[in-house]
Design goal:
Helices cover about 5% and strands about 45% of the residues. The strands form five sheets. Strands 1-2-3-4 form a four-stranded antiparallel sheet, with no helix packed on it. The protein has a four-stranded antiparallel sheet with strand order 5-6-7-8, with no helix packed on it. Strands 9-10-11-12 form a four-stranded antiparallel sheet, with no helix packed on it. It contains one helix and 18 strands. Strand 6 (about 70-75) and strand 7 (about 80-85) form a beta hairpin. It starts with 5 loop residues before the first helix and ends with a strand. It is mainly beta. The relative contact order is 0.10.
């Protein structure tokens, strides 16, 4: 139809809300399909809460969103997607130049203000870190990407920060403990059979 923007319609109709993360102390970010970040704004001044859809300019699903401070937002996802906004989500820049093609996720903020994330490829998963507004990411480590027979489709890698150490959970029901300063790491087996991970406010990792 005349004047009908197909791409705009697809993005405005983006469904799904993936992996909530805090927007400062006021709201939440969600990943979504078609390069869209969803921002949930709470009920302020009794005007009602609402969900804002923000186009990052990417074409792939966004799986992870991080408030990196100083109005910087990072969004990561499928197809090697890693983008940042320095103005609260109005404009976005590509930050994927120095990382391999794969699924990018697990965005976390380190104690020194840097950010870390993983890139998952067919048989390997890598952890990178760097400044929130950089395109020069430093690889911390590589680990084999193996699946357990009982894992199921929903068991995907996750990255957490716990007591200044990065915890990378793997689809084979093992997890990595990585010191981002020294680069030393160890792979351990979970103490119980489980189907997912989560982290408590006190940085304790739970096997679910």
């Amino acid at each position: 139809r005349h004047g009908y923007d197909v791409v705009l319609h697809i993005k405005q109709s983006s469904v799904g809300a993936y992996l909530a993360s805090k927007k400062g102390n006021n709201g939440f970010f969600f990943g979504s399909q078609n390069g869209v970040v969803k921002i949930w704004h709470p009920d302020e001044w009794h005007s009602g809460s609402y969900m804002e859809l923000v186009d990052t300019g990417a074409d792939f699903a966004i799986d992870s969103v991080l408030d990196a401070g100083d109005q910087i937002i990072l969004a990561a996802g499928e197809g090697g997607t890693l983008r940042s906004s320095a103005d609260g989500g109005t404009t976005w820049s590509d930050r994927s130049e120095s990382i391999p093609f794969g699924v990018v996720g697990g965005l976390v903020r380190l104690a020194n203000g840097d950010v870390a994330f993983f890139v998952s490829q067919s048989s390997i998963i890598s952890i990178f870190e760097g400044k929130p507004d950089t395109t020069r990411w430093h690889k911390l480590a590589d680990f084999p990407l193996e699946f357990a027979k009982s894992t199921g489709a929903g068991m995907m890698p996750q990255l957490f920060l716990s007591h200044d150490h990065l915890i990378l959970t793997l689809p084979n029901k093992r997890f990595v403990v990585l010191d981002p300063i020294s680069g030393s790491s160890e792979i351990a087996d979970a103490p119980i059979d489980f189907f997912g991970f989560d982290i408590a406010p006190d940085a304790t990792i739970w096997c679910l």
